Amino acid sequence: xxxxxxxxxQAVIIxxxxxxxxxxxxxxxxRGASAWLxxxxxxxxxxxxxxxxxxxCTPVFGPFDVRSPSGHVAAATxxxxxxxxxxxxxxxxxxxxxxxxxxxxxxSRLVLGAHSLPEVVLGAAVGxxxxxxxxRFSGAPPRLNIAPLVAVMVAVAVLFHGLHLPAEAAIRxxxxxxxxxxxxxxxxxxxxxxxxx
Length: 197
Fold this sequence. Notes:
11 helices, 77% helix
């Protein structure tokens, strides 16, 4: 399961997103490349905001069993669904491809004990929204040479697979810093444990 989940780590996703943007721009589709970068950045920003919100005040959201929505699932869903959309130009392909990515990576996150089911579902919803937004903002793709794009994706995945960015630790640290300024969160057991460390 670790092998599968590592494909959605930011250490793989970020270089992949940049490589795809360069590939699209190189083929003359600057609007698609710009939309790709902007929508991916917006999707990741939404996930960051959700993680900070839920982590900084976990007990408020405790009944929903959401502490940290799955960024791995959001990234996999967004990238897989988004790529299917921009490479095919078809809206009907987004949902099946995005859901397949969400299920595969989501199951790996659940089996590894990294996330709860609601956290996986929330990540998938954010990623799917990003993939749909990408199709809307990128416009109709020109005739693309898909082979080099696929070759670049495979090369990036192979080169960066297994690497990990310590993003979650930095997000958690920031969330506890934010909690200092949110009165309802200051008295939570998690916050108190963080202060004791």
